[in-house]
Design goal:
Elements lengths: L8 E4 L2 E10 L2 E10 L6 E3 L4 E4 L4 E8 L6 E5 L2 E3 L5 E6 L2 E7 L7 E7 L2 E10 L1
Parallel strand pairs: 5-12
Antiparallel strand pairs: 1-2, 2-3, 4-6, 6-10, 7-8, 7-11, 9-10, 11-12
């Protein structure tokens, strides 16, 4: 009697079905182990440099992350910025936006969005 063993099948790019075999005396136990791989989170659209005019009412910085529920922090010149009168932070289905109200020369600098351990940065230039 010839035994047919289950074949290893690739069921998709993110999961694999692998046979797990156990043999003891004349008993053969076959189980299938499904392994799912989670791709690493990454930036789909990174921040881009922006130039605006002084006293512009609203400047927008935007980027898109693969995990829309990631915890995101925003930084200006390595100092964290928070929601308030100057800044508005928005997440719309993984598109993370930082709005800067009433742009001034002091707002110029390097802005960074950090999601989990991944970062994307841009420079804001304010012209007078």
């Amino acid at each position: 009697m010839q035994r047919k063993w289950p074949k290893t099948e690739i069921t998709g790019k993110r999961s694999y079905a692998l046979p797990v075999l156990r043999m003891a005396d004349d008993i053969v136990c076959v189980r299938v182990l499904i392994v799912r791989f989670q791709p690493a989170d990454n930036w789909i659209d990174e921040l881009e440099d922006v130039t605006c005019q002084e006293k512009e009412s609203k400047v927008e910085l935007a980027c898109k992350f693969s995990n829309p529920k990631a915890r995101v922090s925003w930084y200006k010149n390595k100092l964290e910025v928070f929601q308030g009168l100057k800044y508005k932070l928005v997440n719309e289905d993984g598109v993370f936006r930082l709005f800067i109200n009433n742009a001034s020369m002091e707002d110029a600098g390097k802005y960074t969005c950090q999601a989990n351990t991944q970062e994307t940065s841009c420079y804001l230039t304010v012209e007078g």
